[in-house]
Automatic annotation (TrEMBL):
<keyword id="KW-0333">Golgi apparatus</keyword>
<keyword id="KW-0175">Coiled coil</keyword>
<keyword id="KW-0963">Cytoplasm</keyword>
<comment type="similarity">
    <text>Belongs to the GORAB family.</text>
</comment>
<dbReference type="InterPro" id="IPR007033">
    <property type="entry name" value="GORAB"/>
</dbReference>
<protein>
    <recommendedName>
        <fullName>RAB6-interacting golgin</fullName>
    </recommendedName>
</protein>
<dbReference type="GO" id="GO:1905515">
    <property type="term" value="P:non-motile cilium assembly"/>
</dbReference>
<dbReference type="GO" id="GO:0005794">
    <property type="term" value="C:Golgi apparatus"/>
</dbReference>
Amino acid sequence: MEKFQKQQKMIEEANKQKKALLAKTLNERRLRAKAESAKLTKIQKELNHLDSLLTADVSVIRDKIELASIEFLDAQKRYEKAEKEVISSKMNLFEKGETKERLTEHLYTIIHQNEVRKAKKLAELMEILEMETSAEEMELQAPSIPTLTNFNSVHT
């Protein structure tokens, strides 16, 4: 029985040691798990912080892109309007230049025809007065210029 009790005590002592070792191992693993959990929580917070920074940066850039897009469309509309105005002004300038050119040609024609009429009238008057015209005076008489065919008459 004593042998049995000794063996019982040895088993109990071994069980105590095993239990203590097990408790110590469990405690160590809990501490490691707690440290690992804290580490994971810290990493998760850092990842969330990075995500929030990225989200903020993306939001700011998207707002700037939206503003730039609106400004671009406004500038494009102003450019197209100005381009139309330039084309319209060029066309108007060209038309006014052509009109001026036609009117100038018409004026020269009228002046020339008037001079020709004067010359004829003076020649007639000299004939009536029986004055002789010299060869030099005959050369001064200019031939008549035909009227412009592509010009709309101007009432003068």
